[in-house]
Amino acid sequence: MESETGFVPKVTENIAMDSAEKRLNELGYKQELRREMTMFKTLAISFSTMTLFTGITPLYGSSLQYAGPASLVWGWVVVCFFTWFVGIAMAEICSSFPTTGSLYFWAAHLAGPKWGPFSSWCCAWLETIGLIAGIGTQAYAGSQTLQSIILLSTGTNKGGGYFAPKWLFLCMYIGLTVIWAALNTFALEVIAFIDIISIWWQVIGGAVIVIMLPLVALTTQSASYVFTNFELAPNTTGISSKPYAVILSFLVSQYSLYGYDAAAHLTEETKGADKNGPIAILGSLAIISVFGWAYILALTFSIQDFAYLYDPNNETAGAFVPAQILYDAFHGRYHNSTGAIVLLFVIWGSFFFGGLSITTSAARVVYALSRDNGVPFSFLWRKLHPRHKVPTNAVWLCAAICILLGLPILKVNVVFTAITSICTIGWVGGYAVPIFARMVMPEKNFKAGPFYLGKARRPICLVAFVWICYTCCVFLLPTLYPITWDTFNYAPVALGVGLGLIMVWWVLDARKWFKGPVRNIDAQNGKV
């Protein structure tokens, strides 16, 4: 079949060649990264990037406060339903294009020769922004959890415990980022091994929390409270509109249910990626859908006093609602905070593994974009470690930018809101470009992989695209009223400036030389 670029790629047959490597050569790329990842290892990294706790835990308190437990609990189900459309659409594309560049490579080829360069440019930068901000969300939330662990370990807020000040919080943020970058300079087998630990850590740890927490709590909320209670908190949030409150209560679910594209970033390093890539995407989405809802239910059933969760004079200083729920449960029964500290450490481990995996994904995207000359000083960021064959320079570039994003922690109280919004809009927004291109492209131009939707692809892609657009819009909304410097959502400004500069760069210069993914193999003879 003739490709949209106008020539028929031919690759020398090799019986021993991996099917995904053969497809990679057909697309014009030589195999440079080591293809040693199994399906389970790829699933582990994909699941670790999504993570069971890291999306739900930091936003649980605010989402619960907007409209009460019912909106939060059922919001997860609604968001899961629409997210599956996105996951299925991406799994089909991944099966056809098993390349490290993933989303932006998909966008270039699916949009065709006319719109391909612009589509890949937009997609690449959205994804890069989202992934690097994603490292920041994990570092911030991980530092927040560590802050609560230190506070409870030293006597609680009421007992004179130590509540880490902003400068120490920033040091923890930077420390986590540097550790993740250092670990990512080793061979991918090290990261894969750690991520296998991660998937068991989260599955076993998640099961322990989901089962133990309601059993330990002296009292549990009724099913009617959890599943049907709807209440606004206008005095705290400033929001009295029920539809608006429900929209904001869904944010925790929308923030948590993405990241499954990590499997696509590793397809050049995965055996049989045209089959195992889609399995990893859908498998990680299935696990997080079930365990995430169970985690939300466990927290909500175990609430002892709703109003006390947000009291700045409570044991956790009103700073971290899940930590207070854990403390109330264990202190109420055992009169100490040891159990809460242990489970908070399990949750902190999830942030650690999640940040490590997102750093892996972010570096792969920067490497792939640099390989195609789409980043300033690309020659630096596309270099691989001579022995480990990992993009070390790209890893440390991502870490440095992430640290810069965290510096306002010293002066601004809404840093996490802004970083979360930037992360979600960039990351999820990057999904929209290839999905839209897949929806409108002529079917004759698409070379299907083992996972193929057939006639169902257009309605599935349509629902997925509309849902992504909605998700990006709601993360631009103010989350607290009245709007002041302390409550203002800075994401629209930051994204507007950042994406505006990127578009100006495109119009003035990049459109003249950026052609999207650059082949590094002679398509006529399969040679470099």
Automatic annotation (TrEMBL):
Keyword match Transmembrane: yes
Residues annotated as transmembrane: 40-61, 73-94, 167-193, 199-218, 279-303, 340-369, 390-410, 416-440, 460-481, 487-508
Location of this chain's protein in the cell: Membrane
A Gene Ontology term for the protein's cellular component: membrane
One GO BP annotation of this record: amino acid transport
PROSITE patterns hit by this protein: AMINO_ACID_PERMEASE_1 (PS00218)
One Pfam family this sequence matches: AA_permease_2
Protein name listed in UniProt: Amino-acid permease BAT1 homolog
Species of provenance: Pisum sativum (Garden pea)
Organism taxonomic ancestry: Eukaryota, Viridiplantae, Streptophyta, Embryophyta, Tracheophyta
